[in-house]
Amino acid sequence: MNQDTIAAVATPPGNGGISVIRISGSDAVKIADRVFAYGQGQKLSEAGSHVFHYGHAVFGDKIIDECMAVVMRAPRSYTREDCVEIHCHGGALVTKTVLEALFAAGAVPAEPGEFTKRAFFNGRIDLTEAEAVMDVIASENRYALDCSMHQLNGQLRKEISRLRQRILEETARIEAAIDDPEHYALEDYGRQLEQTLQPVLERIDTLQASFDDGRLLKEGIRTVIIGKPNAGKSSILNYLSGRDRAIVTEIPGTTRDTLEETIVLDGLQLIVTDTAGIHDTKDKVESIGIDKAKEAVAGADLVLFVLDSFAGYEDSDKEILSMIREKKTIVLLNKTDLEQNIQKEALEKALPFPVIDFSAAEFKGKEALGALLKEMLFSGKLETDHQIYITSLRQKNLLAQAKESLENVMESIRLKLPEDFYFIDLYAAYTKLGEISGDTVDEDIINEIFSKFCMGK
């Protein structure tokens, strides 16, 4: 690990109220003393830890800015190194000038994610917690934030540690028996090992299965609104987004192209695509729009199938139904503010999907949609305070590799192979699980993970 004292701006670029410049390393306080002046010649090196001080940033004999500084002495800092933060005014020029002064005083520019990387190498966090840092920053909905904070607090690390410990105990037992067979017998050990590994495999399966839900929490639910022309799809998009995002007229076929909008519904992020009305047409432009609608449906996590309750359930609706039978779908029975020519109860009997009474004109149905959405996508209830969700494809792939190794052990037991065969695959599973937390990971992989971090984090 780089031992230089590093510095970077920790706040977003551009003008703002304040900018925070972070310094970390063995010379952090000494370097800050050359740039930050306060009191009657007082020095930060003589100040107490975790106390803010008012003063000025200086560059040579010139005052750059009026600011605050705080020293955080090791190990009570984000990186477990000596750290200093200088809080200056948030102008782009003044921030740049203070940073240049720190470089002139001996600091070097931090690489993306280098502060968090140092926190990892210094044992303050593991790799799952480091990955969660960026998830917290990128969270765009309440549930994604809860999920990220759950992982940042070490819940996944603890779970992986428990699984590794159970595997380690078995590898130690086999190794002891191989080295000292007179004192450590392995009689009927295969059956015992099988009973030990079964719950481990089941827990790995559960963690793997959480990836799809975790991805939806993190990235948003790709949602497509589909239906025949003039069913009210664009009005529904406007209602859900809270603004006039799509053009709405009484003329069928107003929407000719796909239109995307990100919305938050009851704490969940939806990436919603409005589509052209699907029907038989000879219009070349409409046909292109319909083809795009079909492509959007193919890549969707969720389909909102809009039915016009005034027009009734028609042949064109049945054609659309054939396209979406394999998709997670919610039927929105729209225009319930008008005369009803089809009832919700009849639709529920005829269709394999849940149905919600809806009225974009009267702003009704949004709450019911949010509640049903959670029920469908997240097995009835979102419990981010207690449920561990895998949100990283890297973590999911390593779980799959660990599972494969443990299944090889189970196969060796069934084939009554020697115990040293068990040891090889047990150790492989132990190693792969260790890569999730960073205990057994190559530095190249670590560098790849942290290269995706923002500067100053």
Describe the model.
- With 457 residues, the protein is α/β, with parallel strands linked by helices.
- It folds into three domains: 6-125, Gyrase A, domain 2, CATH 3.30.1360.120; 131-215 and 392-438, tRNA modification GTPase MnmE domain 2 (Four Helix Bundle (Hemerythrin (Met), subunit A), Up-down Bundle); 220-377, Rossmann fold.
- 46% of the residues lie in helices and 18% in strands.
- The protein contains 15 helices and 13 strands.
- It has helices spanning 28-35, 92-104, 114-121, 127-138, 142-152, 155-179, 189-219, 233-241, 284-298, 315-324, 344-350, 366-377, 393-414, 419-437, 443-450, and strands at 6-9, 16-24, 36-37, 52-59, 62-72, 83-90, 108-109, 221-227, 259-265, 268-274, 302-308, 329-334, 355-357.
- The strands form two sheets. The chain has a seven-stranded mixed β-sheet. Strands 9-10-8-11-12-13 form a six-stranded mixed β-sheet, with helices on both faces.
- A hairpin with a 6-residue loop joins strand 1 and strand 2.
- It is flat and about 85 Å long.
- The two termini are 16 Å apart.
Keywords:
457 residues; alpha/beta; Gyrase A, domain 2; Rossmann fold; 3 domains; 7-stranded mixed beta sheet; 6-stranded mixed beta sheet; flat
* Highest CATH level, the class of the largest domain: Alpha Beta
| CATH fold assignment of the largest domain | Rossmann fold
Beta percentage is 15-25%
How is the largest sheet built, in terms of strand order?
3-4-5-6-2-1-7
Uncertain runs:
none
Radius of gyration from the alpha-carbon trace, in angstroms? 29 Å
The description of the largest β-sheet is: 7 strands, mixed
The figure for the number of domains is 3
Q: What class do helices, strands and sheet pairing give?
A: alpha/beta
How does CATH name the architecture of the largest domain? 3-Layer(aba) Sandwich
Number of strands: 13
Number of DSSP helices?
15
> Whole-number average pLDDT?
84
Q: State the oligomer.
A: single chain
Order of helices and strands: EEHEEEEHEHHHHHEHEEHEHEHEHHHH
The CATH superfamily of the largest domain is known as P-loop containing nucleotide triphosphate hydrolases
